Amino acid sequence: MKTIEYFYAAYSGYAYIGSAVLQEIATRAGARLVHRPFVLRTLVTARGNTSRVEDAVYRDYAFRREIERWAEYRNVRMLGRTPTYHQESYETANRMLIASGETGEQTDRLAHGFLEAHWADDADLSDRETLLAIAASACIDGAALIEAAGAEEVAARHRANTEEAIARGFFGSPTYVVDGDPFYGQDRLELVARALEKPFANDWAPTS
To answer: Are the CB atoms for 87 and 53 separated by under 8 Å?
Structure first.
């Protein structure tokens, strides 16, 4: 069975835009979608991209014009602006996804639910009651997941995902990996679909 490793953060706008398409691609290809939530801000710092992300001109283009075009193209609901609580912590949401399991329909539903609620409904992913409501809408026991998310084993997995994203030279969220070949950004999803059918020629190795 083919596998798609899905490195993303629970609050990532571009992960949201590609979420439904990614799940359709995996289903169509009979591929196993493996969720690898990680701390995006840590990766951005490690790549030395903090100043770019904080630049007002870049943010206006990347997180306003570009994101609204892609939202229209993918036909997804979008606020049309950065969510109100975008700078709050999303660690519990990430860890709930890890606790729900790396694969399976439950994790797929929860991941999409978090992303959509944040970017389409302005949800605060740092708020416990909001997380419980999103989980409930996906027919998931959110209270049990929040409790499981507090386990050190889950925290360790969260750290490991982040460290692995840095070590493998990823740039941000979402990053999809097929047979070791990384595809950064939801605008590469058509290439992901092709890679599942026929791998691309590859003699490239990332710079360490």
So the answer is: no
